[in-house]
Amino acid sequence: MPWQVGTTLITRVVDLDFPLPSKDPVPEWCVPDFAPTSAEVSLAFSAFLVTGAGPPLVIDPWLANDGPRHGDDADATARRLLGLLEGAGALAEEVRLVVNTHLDGIGWNTRPGPEDAWVAAFPNARYVWPAANLAFHGEDDRLAPLQEARVVDPVALPIELAPGVTLDDGPGHEPGHGVVWVRSMDQVACITGHLFISPLQIADPSLGFDADPVAAEQTRRRLLTDLTACDGLLLSPLLGGPGGGRVRADGEGWRLVPA
Prior knowledge:
The protein has a single domain (about 1-255), classed as Metallo-beta-lactamase, Chain A. About 20% of the residues lie in helices and about 35% in strands. The protein has five helices and 16 strands.
């Protein structure tokens, strides 16, 4: 699913999209785009490719999809995912910047290399994380292949990483969690990391799975209010179905309209 934001193109590169039972009532607007039935919601593992704002950059490369990394077919999985990225418009070797909103699983920032070692999945890229989030996690073996290659850049937020692409504060899900804003020609999109992992959190921002529930709800409400005001796109790597849409006020909450 590609979205045009001014002169910038954002393409969602999906690995898995599957239904999960919902213990909370699913709003009618979710079905069928974001939820297959009124008793389920869709969850996806995806990455975002951004082109048109300088060299290709990747955001949150299949974060939290760490299970397959431990299987015998991890290399085949990495090849498949990078093949999907190529089909979306960029070779792994062409990517110059990988932006992570937080460290919630390493996802496929790294891939199997020679002699059972793990190496950077994007060999010519710098890897950006919010410095406060890396400090929260402390020393983490999952980052070792990237740190040994000296390609990890902890950054203070907010920071513009490419023309019109900014990594900004998005606290609540984890300390130091960030969100990525893409702005071009008065058009706006926000890639929200794991602040929104279910469409139910759009209808009711108090719902969540967060380190700081109060801060997360406040951040979700702020993002939804701002995106409603500017007719912006909300995009999440974990939302199933189309993965995002335009935010609209809906009673005391909000809803998404696929775009």
